[in-house]
C-alpha cells in the first residue's frame, strides 16, 4: 500500500476552489463544465461594500473589561467539538469519531478539548434527526421544560447536552463549542457567527481566514430576530458553526473532510495562542448578514412548482441582482428575483431545507469591527 | 449485419420514485401525471410513482430496497402480514406492468434514478437487445450537455432484481451527480430530455422509419469494491480525491483508490477497469465504495417496425 506525504494544509482547501467563471447569462453546456461542479473562488468587491466605515466602540459583555482599545477576556479553557448534530452530515461524524479514538491532533496547551457526538441515534440511522431537528431544539422553552419521558428524543438530548456543556447563558457554560456541519449547497467553507458583538469569535474568524489564505472561508452572521435559531452550539459562551459543502447527505468526500480538519486546526491554534497571552489587535471582518428566507414557489397543496434556476444553482455568495433568474418551472419558464437591491444568496438548494420552506437565504455584505482582545 | 424487423411498441411505462429520495424521477412522473399524459400518438404512456410511501418520507425505502425486489423468486414469494412493504409493492407493480417475462408486460419500462456519483447520464440494461441499443445511440446523438453511457448488468433474467426487468424491454435512466433529497434543474432538464427522446424514438419507429445500424460502447459490470473497514466495520478511509468524481476514467494498477483518515493512500492492484458509482451514498450500507466495469463494443443492425 502506498504511503503519501502529508497533504499541505492550504492545498487541500485550494483543491476546493476554482476560478470564478462568468456566470450571469452563461449557461454551462459542455460536459467538462458539467463535471467540474465545485467551489467558486469568491472575489471581494470593495466597491460594493455595504458596511460600517467607522468602527463603533465595542460593547462590554460580562467577563470583559475594556483596557484602552483592547478587551480583556477570560481564558478559553473548556472547548468542545460537536459532530453528528445532523446524523447524515458525515464530515463531522468522521472527524469526531476519529478524535474520540485518538485525540492527539486536537490537544492544545491551556485548553481541555472534548470531541462529542451530539445525536448518536441519528448518526446510527444516518438520518438528519430521529424526531425533531436537534439544531433547532435548544430553545429556552425546551431546555427548561420538566417531565420529559414523552418528549421527542432530540428535546431530551438537548436538555442532556445543556447539562453537560451549559447551562446556556450561565458562567459555568463551556467557553467555545465548534459545531461541524455539511451542506448540499456550494458554500465552500463557511463559519457561522451568532452575534456581531462576539469579539472573541470575530478575532478567531479573522485568524482562520488569514491562516488559510489564498483559500477562502466566509463568515455568515445569523442575528436575524426571526430567522435566528437555537443551535446546539448556542449552549456555549462562544458558539462557532462550521459548515462545509457541497457534500450530499450520507456521503463522505475526502476533500471536504480534509478542509474541515484544516479549519479546526487553525481554530484550535488560535485558542492556544490566546490562552498563552497573545494580544490580537483590533481588526475588521467581512461578514454576510442573513436577511431573508426565500421559499420555492408552491401550488395550493404546498407542492413545489419550480426549481432553483440553473443560473443560480451553485452560485452561493455571488451577487443576485433584481431581474436575475431565480427559479425555473418544470416547463422551463424563468422566474426572476424581484427584490429591490442586490443580495448575496447562500444555502442555495440545501436538501434539508425543503421541509423548512427555504430554497435559499439572502444576505447583505457588511464589515464588522472587532476590538483588540487579550486574555485577562 | 442484416436488417431486423421488430414488433411495434404499444405500451410504455415511465417510472419514478423507486427510491423515494431520488427527486428527478419523482418530479418528472408527477408532472406527467399532472398533465395527464397517457398517450403519445401510436402508443400509450403510463407514468408511475412506484414507491409512494418512500416518496412521502423522502427516503430511499421504508422496509427494503424496492429495486432489489424483482427477482423471479421474490416476485413469486407468498405475501403475509409481515412481508416488507416494498416486496408487496413489487408484486403489485409486476401485476400492473408485467408480469415479468410474460406476453402482457409493457413493451418498454423506463425507470428514473439519481446518483450522488458523477456519472452524467447512464442507461442501465440487463440485456442489450437491438431496440435498447438503438435507443442508446439515438439519445447519445441528441444529448451533448452531459456524457451519455450504457451500463450492462450481465445477469440472467430470472435473477434480474430491478424494476426495468419487468418490461419486455427496459432500462434505468441514472443521472448524477445529485444529492438525495435535492432537485437540481440541470439534472431534471437532461433527464426530461432523455425521456422525451425515448418517446420520440418510439413514435418514429412505430411510424415506419428505418434506423441505421452501427456500433456503441457499453460498460459491463465486473465487480464491486468496498471501503477499507476496521474490526468493528467502520470505514477507515474516504474515496481518494483523485478517484472522486472520475467515474468512467480508466483505473490502472498503482492509481490511488482511498485516502485513509490517517493520511495513507491505498492503490489499485489488478487489471485495468472502469470505475463507476464512485461514492454513491446508498451503497455504503451495501458495502460498495465503487464498481468496476470492462468496456465492450457492440454492433447492431438497422431496424424498422414489422409491417403486417
TrEMBL record, chain A:
<keyword id="KW-0862">Zinc</keyword>
<dbReference type="InterPro" id="IPR016708">
    <property type="entry name" value="Aspartoacylase"/>
</dbReference>
<dbReference type="GO" id="GO:0019807">
    <property type="term" value="F:aspartoacylase activity"/>
</dbReference>
<dbReference type="InterPro" id="IPR055438">
    <property type="entry name" value="AstE_AspA_cat"/>
</dbReference>
<keyword id="KW-0378">Hydrolase</keyword>
<dbReference type="GO" id="GO:0005829">
    <property type="term" value="C:cytosol"/>
</dbReference>
<comment type="similarity">
    <text>Belongs to the AspA/AstE family. Aspartoacylase subfamily.</text>
</comment>
<feature type="domain" description="Succinylglutamate desuccinylase/Aspartoacylase catalytic">
    <location>
        <begin position="76"/>
        <end position="271"/>
    </location>
</feature>
<dbReference type="GO" id="GO:0046872">
    <property type="term" value="F:metal ion binding"/>
</dbReference>
<dbReference type="GO" id="GO:0005634">
    <property type="term" value="C:nucleus"/>
</dbReference>
<dbReference type="InterPro" id="IPR007036">
    <property type="entry name" value="Aste_AspA_hybrid_dom"/>
</dbReference>
<dbReference type="Pfam" id="PF24827">
    <property type="entry name" value="AstE_AspA_cat"/>
</dbReference>
<dbReference type="InterPro" id="IPR050178">
    <property type="entry name" value="AspA/AstE_fam"/>
</dbReference>
<dbReference type="GO" id="GO:0016788">
    <property type="term" value="F:hydrolase activity, acting on ester bonds"/>
</dbReference>
<keyword id="KW-0963">Cytoplasm</keyword>
<keyword id="KW-0539">Nucleus</keyword>
<feature type="region of interest" description="Disordered">
    <location>
        <begin position="1"/>
        <end position="22"/>
    </location>
</feature>
<protein>
    <recommendedName>
        <fullName>Aspartoacylase</fullName>
        <ecNumber>3.5.1.15</ecNumber>
    </recommendedName>
</protein>
<dbReference type="Pfam" id="PF04952">
    <property type="entry name" value="AstE_AspA_hybrid"/>
</dbReference>
<feature type="domain" description="AstE/AspA barrel-sandwich hybrid">
    <location>
        <begin position="284"/>
        <end position="364"/>
    </location>
</feature>
<keyword id="KW-0479">Metal-binding</keyword>
UniProtKB/TrEMBL annotation, chain B:
<dbReference type="InterPro" id="IPR050178">
    <property type="entry name" value="AspA/AstE_fam"/>
</dbReference>
<dbReference type="GO" id="GO:0016324">
    <property type="term" value="C:apical plasma membrane"/>
</dbReference>
<keyword id="KW-0862">Zinc</keyword>
<dbReference type="GO" id="GO:0046872">
    <property type="term" value="F:metal ion binding"/>
</dbReference>
<keyword id="KW-0479">Metal-binding</keyword>
<dbReference type="InterPro" id="IPR016708">
    <property type="entry name" value="Aspartoacylase"/>
</dbReference>
<comment type="similarity">
    <text>Belongs to the AspA/AstE family. Aspartoacylase subfamily.</text>
</comment>
<dbReference type="GO" id="GO:0004046">
    <property type="term" value="F:aminoacylase activity"/>
</dbReference>
<feature type="binding site">
    <location>
        <position position="19"/>
    </location>
    <ligand>
        <name>Zn(2+)</name>
    </ligand>
</feature>
<dbReference type="Pfam" id="PF24827">
    <property type="entry name" value="AstE_AspA_cat"/>
</dbReference>
<feature type="binding site">
    <location>
        <position position="113"/>
    </location>
    <ligand>
        <name>Zn(2+)</name>
    </ligand>
</feature>
<dbReference type="GO" id="GO:0016788">
    <property type="term" value="F:hydrolase activity, acting on ester bonds"/>
</dbReference>
<dbReference type="GO" id="GO:0005829">
    <property type="term" value="C:cytosol"/>
</dbReference>
<feature type="domain" description="Succinylglutamate desuccinylase/Aspartoacylase catalytic">
    <location>
        <begin position="10"/>
        <end position="201"/>
    </location>
</feature>
<keyword id="KW-0963">Cytoplasm</keyword>
<keyword id="KW-0378">Hydrolase</keyword>
<keyword id="KW-1003">Cell membrane</keyword>
<dbReference type="InterPro" id="IPR055438">
    <property type="entry name" value="AstE_AspA_cat"/>
</dbReference>
<protein>
    <recommendedName>
        <fullName>N-acyl-aromatic-L-amino acid amidohydrolase</fullName>
        <ecNumber>3.5.1.114</ecNumber>
    </recommendedName>
</protein>
<dbReference type="InterPro" id="IPR007036">
    <property type="entry name" value="Aste_AspA_hybrid_dom"/>
</dbReference>
<feature type="domain" description="AstE/AspA barrel-sandwich hybrid">
    <location>
        <begin position="215"/>
        <end position="295"/>
    </location>
</feature>
<dbReference type="Pfam" id="PF04952">
    <property type="entry name" value="AstE_AspA_hybrid"/>
</dbReference>
Amino acid at each position: 500500500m502506498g504511503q503519501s506525504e502529508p497533504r499541505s494544509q492550504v492545498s487541500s482547501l485550494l483543491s476546493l476552489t476554482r476560478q470564478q467563471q462568468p456566470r450571469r447569462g452563461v449557461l454551462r453546456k459542455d460536459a467538462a463544465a458539467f463535471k467540474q461542479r465545485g467551489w467558486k473562488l469568491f472575489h471581494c468587491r470593495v466597491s460594493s461594500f455595504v458596511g460600517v466605515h467607522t468602527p463603533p466602540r465595542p460593547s462590554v459583555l460580562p467577563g470583559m473589561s475594556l483596557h484602552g482599545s483592547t478587551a480583556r477576556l477570560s481564558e478559553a479553557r473548556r472547548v468542545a467539538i460537536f459532530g453528528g448534530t445532523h446524523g447524515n452530515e458525515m464530515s463531522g461524524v468522521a472527524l469526531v469519531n476519529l478524535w474520540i479514538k485518538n485525540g492527539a491532533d486536537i490537544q492544545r496547551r491551556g485548553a481541555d478539548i472534548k470531541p462529542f457526538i451530539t445525536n448518536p441515534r441519528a448518526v446510527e440511522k444516518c438520518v438528519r434527526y430521529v424526531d425533531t431537528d436537534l439544531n433547532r431544539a435548544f430553545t429556552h422553552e425546551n431546555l427548561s421544560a420538566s417531565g420529559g419521558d414523552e418528549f421527542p428524543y432530540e428535546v431530551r438530548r438537548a436538555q442532556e447536552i445543556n447539562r453537560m456543556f451549559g447551562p446556556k447563558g450561565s458562567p459555568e457554560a463551556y467557553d467555545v463549542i465548534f459545531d461541524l456541519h455539511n451542506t448540499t449547497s456550494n458554500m465552500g467553507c463557511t463559519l457561522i457567527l451568532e452575534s456581531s458583538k462576539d469579539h472573541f469569535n470575530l478575532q478567531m474568524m479573522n485568524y482562520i481566514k488569514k491562516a488559510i489564505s489564498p483559500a477562502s472561508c466566509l463568515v455568515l452572521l445569523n442575528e436575524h430576530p426571526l430567522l435566528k435559531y437555537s443551535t446546539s452550539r448556542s449552549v456555549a459562551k462562544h458558539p462557532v458553526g462550521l459548515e462545509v459543502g457541497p457534500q450530499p447527505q450520507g456521503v463522505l468526500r475526502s476533500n471536504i473532510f480534509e478542509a474541515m480538519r484544516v479549519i479546526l486546526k487553525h481554530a484550535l491554534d488560535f485558542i492556544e495562542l490566546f490562552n498563552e497571552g497573545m494580544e490580537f489587535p483590533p481588526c475588521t471582518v467581512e461578514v454576510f448578514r442573513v436577511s431573508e428566507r426565500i421559499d420555492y414557489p408552491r401550488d395550493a397543496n404546498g407542492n413545489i412548482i419550480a426549481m432553483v434556476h440553473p443560473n443560480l444553482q451553485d452560485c452561493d455568495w455571488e451577487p443576485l441582482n433584481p431581474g436575475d433568474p431565480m427559479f425555473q418551472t418544470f416547463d422551463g419558464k424563468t422566474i426572476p428575483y424581484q427584490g429591490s437591491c442586490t443580495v448575496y444568496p447562500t444555502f442555495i438548494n440545501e436538501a434539508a431545507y425543503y421541509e423548512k420552506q427555504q430554497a435559499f437565504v439572502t444576505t447583505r455584505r457588511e464589515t464588522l469591527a472587532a476590538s483588540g482582545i487579550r486574555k485577562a | 449485419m442484416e436488417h431486423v424487423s421488430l414488433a411495434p411498441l404499444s405500451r410504455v411505462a415511465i417510472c419514478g420514485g423507486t427510491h423515494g429520495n431520488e427527486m428527478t424521477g419523482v418530479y418528472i412522473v408527477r408532472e406527467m401525471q399532472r398533465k395527464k399524459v397517457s398517450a403519445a400518438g401510436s402508443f400509450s404512456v403510463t407514468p408511475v410513482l412506484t414507491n409512494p410511501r418512500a416518496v412521502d418520507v423522502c427516503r430511499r425505502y421504508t422496509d427494503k430496497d424496492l429495486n432489489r425486489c424483482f427477482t423471479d423468486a421474490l416476485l413469486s414469494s407468498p405475501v403475509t402480514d409481515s412481508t416488507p412493504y416494498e416486496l408487496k409493492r413489487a408484486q403489485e407493480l409486476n401485476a400492473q406492468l408485467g408480469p415479468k417475462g410474460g406476453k402482457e408486460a409493457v413493451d418498454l419500462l423506463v425507470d428514473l434514478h439519481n446518483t450522488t456519483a458523477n456519472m452524467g447520464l447512464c442507461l442501465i440494461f440487463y440485456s442489450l437487445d437491438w431496440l435498447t441499443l438503438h435507443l442508446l445511440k439515438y439519445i447519445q446523438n441528441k444529448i451533448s450537455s452531459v456524457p451519455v453511457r450504457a451500463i450492462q448488468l450481465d445477469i440472467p433474467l430470472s435473477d434480474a432484481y430491478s424494476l426495468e426487468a419487468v418490461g419486455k424491454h427496459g432500462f434505468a435512466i441514472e443521472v448524477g451527480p445529485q444529492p438525495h433529497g435535492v432537485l437540481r434543474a440541470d439534472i431534471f432538464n437532461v433527464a426530461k430530455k432523455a425521456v422525451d427522446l425515448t418517446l420520440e424514438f418510439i413514435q418514429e419507429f412505430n411510424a415506419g422509419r428505418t434506423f441505421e445500424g452501427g456500433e456503441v460502447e457499453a460498460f459491463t459490470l465486473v465487480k464491486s469494491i468496498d471501503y477499507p473497514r476496521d474490526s468493528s466495520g467502520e470505514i477507515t478511509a474516504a474515496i481518494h480525491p483523485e478517484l472522486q468524481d472520475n467515474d468512467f476514467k480508466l483505473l490502472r494498477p498503482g492509481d490511488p483508490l482511498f485516502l485513509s483518515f490517517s493520511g495513507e493512500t491505498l492503490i489499485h492492484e489488478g487489471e485495468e477497469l472502469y470505475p463507476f458509482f464512485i461514492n454513491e451514498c446508498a451503497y455504503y450500507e451495501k458495502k460498495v465504495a465503487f464498481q468496476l466495469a470492462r468496456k465492450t463494443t457492440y454492433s447492431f443492425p438497422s431496424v424498422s417496425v414489422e409491417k403486417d
